[in-house]
Each structure stands twice: as C-alpha cells, then as structure tokens.
Amino acid sequence: MKTTAIKNSTFGLYAVLFFSAFGFSLTDSLSPKPLQEKSAGPGSGVAYQHGEVLTYKIYYNLNFIWVPAGEVTFKIFDEGNQYHYQAKGETYDSYEWFFSAKDQYDSWVDKTTLLPNYSERDVNEGDYHIFEKISFNQAARKMTVWRAHKRGAPEEKTEHTVKSECNDVLSSLYNLRNVDYGSQQAGYSVPFRVFMDKEEFPLKMNYLGKEPSKKVYKMGRFKTLKFQPEVIAGTVFKDDAKMTVWVSDDANRIPLLIESPVSVGSVKMVLKEYWGLKYNFEAKN
Questions:
Q1: How far is Cα 216 from Cα 238, in angstroms, rounded to an integer?
Q2: Averaged pLDDT, 194-223
Q3: Would you list the domain boundaries of the chain?
Q4: What is the 3-state secondary structure (H, E, C) of 33-86?
Q5: Averaged pLDDT for residues 4-11
Q6: Per DSSP, what are the bridge partners of residue 144?
Q7: CB 277 within 8 A of CB 283
C-alpha cells in the first residue's frame, strides 16, 4: 500500500515512528481488549508500569560514518484512571551544526480501553515549529485538533471524522507492546490505524519471526522478535523504505534496535538505558 505524504518534523517524527513501528491501533474494527493478556482489571495485563523509563540514542549515517545525533527518552506515569506517556527528543550540541531539534510528545490514555483521550506534541526543529493538541472522542469517531506555530500562539481549531477508533503516534507503541507476537508464525501481519496530521492512516506491521541472538551496540546480545512495518511515505521516508525493528523476546517487549533508510541517508536507534521495567529482562543473553 502506498500512503500519502505527511509534512512533518524530521527528527521528532522519525524518533516516534521508530516506536510506532511497534505500535498504533489494531484493526479496522478496532477493539483494544484483545491487546491485554489478562482481564483482572483496568490495565492489569499491560507490559509496562508507572516509572518505566527507556532512553535511546539516535545515529545518522553521514558519508558512511555513523554520527551520534541525539537521544529520545520515553516515560510512563500512572495518573489514576489514565496512563500518561511522554517522549522527549533532543539533538546533541555537537550535531546542531547540521540539524537542531527539541521535541516533546505526550499522550493520555484510558486504562480500560488503552485508547487516547488527549495528546499533545511540541516540535521545534530548525525553522520548523508546531504545537498541536488533539481531543479524541472515540465513541463518536470524532477528533478535535488545535494547532499553532508554537506553544502559546493563537490556535486554529478543526474537527475530523474517522472510520474507527484510533491511537495517536505515541500511545500506539504502548498498545501493541501488550500483544504476544512470539506465539505467532513468521509472516503474521497486523493492520493498524493512527490519527496524525489531521488524517486517519491505515497501515500494516509484518512480523518476520525470532532472532535469538541479536547484538545491540554497547548493550550485548538479546533474544528478539523482528518486525518490518509499513511507514508513511513523504518527507522522512521514501515509498520503498524498509524499516526493521528488533523487540525484546520477553514479557516487557521493548524495542531494542531500529534501522531504516530515510529520504537522505539512513538512521538507527539503539537502546541506551532502561529503568523500572515491569518484568525481569529475560531477553538479555
């Protein structure tokens, strides 16, 4: 499937799409309940918990040399009947001669459905700036978007109808971390749906099977699940771009390594540090 282009930020979109490669919502008739492994209570079967922190280092291939470009940190907060997911990405000072970025994404999801109620993104990359808020009315299939060129500036409000329940980019990651892909055969494919840039996008993620000893730079070797998701062709990804994602083959199911060509060069994202995992990190060899 060829997906229409999205005009969006480069560093921030790529960083979050790395993780949404293992995410977004499930099917055209989406029901998030099958994502949960247990049904003892709201959020009881999720693969993460309050206080989990994952930090990733982003590398850009510049003339056959992998250059450290920046970091992205993901955090989870338990806020009563909601989870609050947060991602912050920033380029290193040493990279800002080439490109400068400082982005933040936030998503608040209902613990029972694991669908977003509200999200924000604050993107500042070179001369590109955007501040956006989205209110998700999942029952009515209506999304309300407020957008400004920066936080605090006058906002433009628009309303949009979607065909099915949708995730935002960030919440999608956490949703599909709850699916047990390890019990599926290679070639298993999952449709997913995301609301982004005032549009609803149906995509697909392909499970390629297990890779039992994948080396992750400076972290060692891990038992992994390997994926190749469809990406959104446009300013960041070419039509034929092939992103590859390696996820820990354990109950945490966290992305360990992601590699992909982009419109200019290639990028990879590597797990650097982690705290507060819900389960023992049994994927590490």
A1: 26
A2: 92
A3: 10-275
A4: HHHCCCCCCCCCCCCCCCCCEEEEEEEEEECCEEEEEEEEEEEEEEECCEEEEE
A5: 38
A6: 135, 159
A7: no
